[in-house]
Automatic annotation (TrEMBL), chain A:
Name this polypeptide is given: PqqA peptide cyclase
Domain of life: Bacteria
SMART domains: Elp3
NCBIfam families documented for this protein: PQQ_syn_pqqE, rSAM_more_4Fe4S
GO annotation, biological process: molybdopterin cofactor biosynthetic process; pyrroloquinoline quinone biosynthetic process
Gene: pqqE
Residues covered by the Radical SAM core domain: 8-227
Cofactor: [4Fe-4S] cluster
One Pfam family of this chain: Radical_SAM
InterPro entries tied to this protein: 4Fe4S-binding_SPASM_dom (IPR023885), Aldolase_TIM (IPR013785), Elp3/MiaA/NifB-like_rSAM (IPR006638), MoaA_NifB_PqqE_Fe-S-bd_CS (IPR000385), PQQ_synth_PqqE_bac (IPR011843), PqqE-like (IPR017200), Radical_SAM_PqqE_MftC-like (IPR050377), rSAM (IPR007197)
TrEMBL record, chain B:
Keywords in alphabetical order: PQQ biosynthesis
Source taxonomy: Bacteria, Pseudomonadati, Pseudomonadota, Gammaproteobacteria, Pseudomonadales
Name of the protein in its database record: PqqA binding protein
Record's function text: Functions as a PqqA binding protein and presents PqqA to PqqE, in the pyrroloquinoline quinone (PQQ) biosynthetic pathway.
Pfam (any one): PqqD
Gene name of the encoded protein: pqqD
This protein's pathway: Cofactor biosynthesis; pyrroloquinoline quinone biosynthesis
Assembly: Monomer. Interacts with PqqE.
């Protein structure tokens, strides 16, 4: 279970969201809806300091993400600094802004791994979802460059109702690109994805079909002796028990947002909780002593039905952000749970997904104009 | 498993000591395994150069009180191959 404050383990995993800037406009982006009004970013020295502090506390895995981390001109310096500190360094990128030269330079700086995200298996759909005409070709070229440079390659696809029929094509594309791992991550409904949920959520029938295709392809890979690993993250909206979100609040994961706000997970910013900033407090203080990080540690905060539930050590009551978005109170059980009095909200979303007709044009794309429109106040 | 084969960490895997966890770990894309003492001691000898029988001999010298180690080492390496942490050549 989540350790009560006082017996808290170290943050083994650090996610550095270097920037919210991004050339793409994915309608499922997990960045905050008001990202466009949060332009302040930590500078190079501040990031290096965060990395040093995190490493000293025990963080070993480091993700550089965003937004698109490549828009940070100091990325090579940050990679080199991180590697020297002993981190395993992961770059999570859309591939836009990447060049063969950079792929090489990052390798020399010690980057361990590059994950390239795609939106679909064909250029039309990919570019429509990404909101960029040249994205697909660029992604293909960069996936090839990543592989050629000898990195282990993870290809990531966010799956939703408009590309869920493409499983076989997606996996064939990945095989063709010689991926080592493929992540088929069905949309999680936070940030922009929550705004667009009706237009993104697959129906149960679509999901069942997709699972069959993925399992079939896995068997096929095994028979052909191909070591490509396929991870299919199914949507929790079709579960009866919630996920053990982040392995427990403030348990392993520490995210630092572009402006230095420290978060227990990358979407926690939407919660009505004051989270500390690395510019005014040490990372150690933040992790072990801040009210924000201690808020949902342990289980004494839990109301019913979680409080007296014998499964609370397993799932910690699910996801706080999901509880907040769907019930208005982040303390509540995650409505994914069939014991939650708000489970009907999940059932309603499933029904809506069975009847949804919205096309790609009806989605709200993640861009500065929409961000400002949504937050004009 | 043949004793003549040489184990090597697969591309993208890194083995290192973590002082905070007081243990060896294996790091790979977006993942980390914390290794117990004996797994750590074995993987510390996997350098892509020395074959299994030499690794066994080195470990037996390192831990003279442990008795013959061949079976344990081979079992662990077989498991590591299965997890796709290492490859044998
Ligand atoms: S999800 Fe899309 S829009 Fe959001 S940061 Fe990633 S690439 Fe950019
Ligand atoms: S009631 Fe709460 S603790 Fe019990 S299974 Fe549901 S979410 Fe988990």
């Amino acid at each position: 279970m989540t350790a009560p404050a006082g017996q808290v383990g170290p943050p083994l995993w650090l996610l550095a969201e270097l920037t919210y800037r991004c050339p793409l406009q994915c309608p499922y982006c997990s960045n905050p809806l008001d990202y466009a009004s949060q332009e302040h970013e930590l500078n190079t020295e501040q990031w290096l300091d965060v990395l040093r502090q995190g490493r000293a506390m025990g963080a070993a895995q480091l993700g550089f993400s965003g937004g698109e981390p490549l828009v940070r001109q100091d990325l090579p310096e940050l990679i080199a600094g991180a590697r020297e500190l002993g981190y395993y360094t992961n770059l999570i990128t859309s591939g836009l802004g990447l060049t063969e030269g950079k792929v090489q330079a990052f390798a020399e700086a010690g980057l361990d791994h590059i994950q390239v995200s795609f939106q679909a298996s064909d250029p039309e759909l990919n570019n429509a979802v990404a909101g960029s005409r040249k994205a697909f070709e660029q992604k293909l070229a960069m996936a090839r460059a990543v592989k050629a440079a000898g990195y282990p390659m993870v290809l990531n696809f966010v799956i939703h109702r408009h590309n869920i029929h493409q499983m076989n094509d997606i996996l064939a594309l990945c095989e063709n690109l010689d991926a080592d791992y493929v992540e088929l991550a069905t949309c999680q409904y936070y940030g922009w994805a929550f705004k667009n949920r009706e237009g993104l959520m697959p129906s149960k029938a679509q999901l069942v079909q997709a699972e069959q295709e993925v399992n079939g392809y896995r068997d096929d890979l095994r028979n052909r002796g191909r070591p490509m690993k396929v991870i299919f993250v199914t949507p929790d909206y079709y579960e009866e028990r919630p996920k053990a979100c982040m392995n427990g609040w403030g348990n392993l994961f520490l995210t630092v947002a572009p402006d230095g706000t420290a978060l227990p997970c990358h979407s926690a910013r939407l919660l009505p909780i004051d989270f500390p900033n690395v510019q005014s407090q040490s990372l150690n203080d933040i992790w072990y002593h801040s009210p924000g990080f201690n808020h949902y540690r342990g289980d004494s905060w839990m109301p019913e039905p979680c409080r007296s539930c014998d499964e609370k050590d397993k799932d910690f009551g699910g996801c706080r952000c999901q509880a907040y978005l769907l019930t208005g109170n982040a303390d509540n059980a995650d409505p994914v749970c069939s014991k939650s009095p708000h489970h009907d909200r999940i059932l309603a979303a499933r029904t809506a997904a069975d009847h949804a007709t919205a096309g790609l044009d009806d989605l709200i794309y993640r861009n500065a104009r929409n961000s400002k429109l949504l937050y004009r106040g | 498993m043949t004793l003549e084969k040489t184990p090597k960490l697969r591309r993208g895997f890194r083995f290192q000591w973590e002082p905070v966890q007081q243990s060896h770990v294996l790091l790979y894309p977006e993942g980390m395994v914390k290794l117990n003492g004996s797994a750590g001691a074995i993987l510390a000898e996997v350098d892509g150069v020395r074959p299994v029988h030499e690794i066994i001999r080195t470990l037996e010298q390192q831990f003279p009180d442990a008795g013959p180690l061949a079976a344990d080492v081979e079992a662990f390496l077989a498991e590591a191959v299965q997890h796709q942490w290492i490859e044998l050549s």
